[in-house]
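Hey,

Quick one before I head out. I ran the complex with dihydroflavine-adenine dinucleotide overnight. Inputs first:
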Amino acid sequence: MPTAPESYDCVILGAGAAGLFCASIAAAQGVRALAVDHARAPGEKIRISGGGRCNFTNLHVRPACFLSENRHFAKSALARYDQADFIALVERHGIPYHEKTLGQLFCDGSSRDIIDLLLKEMAAAGAVLKLQTAARTIERTEAGFRLALETEGRRWSVEAPALVIATGGKSIPKMGASGFGYGVAAQFGLPIVETRPALVPLTFGGETLEAMASLAGVAAHGAARAGAAMFEEALLFTHRGLSGPAILQISSYWREGETISIDLAPQGGLFETLKAAQAANGRRAVATALAEDLPKRLAQHVAERAGLGGALGGLSDKALRRFVEGLRDWRLTPTGSEGYRKAEVTLGGVSTDALSSATMEAKSVPGLYFIGEVVDVTGWLGGYNFQWAWSSAYAAGTAIAARASGAEG
Ligand code: FDA
């Protein structure tokens, strides 16, 4: 005989960064909250994030650092709960952290500290967490939503007036990413902005890749451009193409068929440096002089590619200038990216047109909320995506509490 559904004020699907935080925020304001995840452990992406140290936010978070079809959408949630709020929470838990670079804040110890923070906040607020639990069906009822769930073969159901979808995007399928949230949006007639892998290495083919093959493993400082977007950070040559922070950042802006531009001397002054080297010793090889500023293998590669395998002496100013210009605007056309297997995030998702920016609630389905990566809001590399998870979770959790207590959210 089927058992009666369990009853909560709010069910949250997905116990990642956004889901765990939303459960703790709602429960702390008196909401009976249940968070459900099909994985064995909560917050698996937090665990592997930031090389195991979780880049949990960024000192410079601002709406301009997020991509979305509606670039204003993230403003409201980011203003209600910002990086200072999350940093204060991290400090209340006594978690040591440091700024690595460009405002990126990492745990000194391990990302486990952030998962523990979220679990402690949930437990203290009385939120319930059920792992290894998959949602089979979601039904709209008069009172809200009824979900058929399955936990290790046992079927059970739960009812709640509020349902939060925090199931993340499609990146890293082997860690539980399922694209499930997009299916829920479709079930309720909400539009989806086409998804694509983002913060992902770019791949090359044919002669470009062949020419680059000798550079695999070389890291350099540079700037990468795709359209109007430009990021100056580290670049890494791989055996399939290009990676490193500068490339991951522009991968969110690049589209198939487009050319990217690499600037290997973004700090300027390279012409003057080479001129001085020429004046000091004309017998010096171009590659050797260049190796003062670039990794040796890269210096050799770009000199040979430009037909300047010989000495500096005899090179006209015009030839040197043309060479430097080439280094500052190295045009390459990627054939693709490493895809969801290697992407840190998913671009696109549930259209912000369908959601309230203040509460994350679906405008046409009262009680249904979407938070975190499943929404069409994608941050830059550097802690921005976790801040979006915290901010959007806070917006929904607070709105659900206000609604549950009879006040308007
Ligand atoms: P998240 O993916 O974290 O959680 C979704 C949860 O839903 C998962 O636990 C999943 O198991 C569960 N789920 C999915 N389908 C389900 C279903 N059908 N039923 C039940 N549960 C389901 N960002 C950043 O700001 N700083 C960083 O340092 C990094 N580093 C980083 C490294 C790597 C390798 C990756 C892949 C990503 C990052 N990121 C990052 C991005 C960051 O991890 C990401 O933006 C957030 O985890 C998104 O949080 P969400 O809670 O929205 O999804």
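The radius of gyration is 25 Å.

Talk tomorrow,
K.
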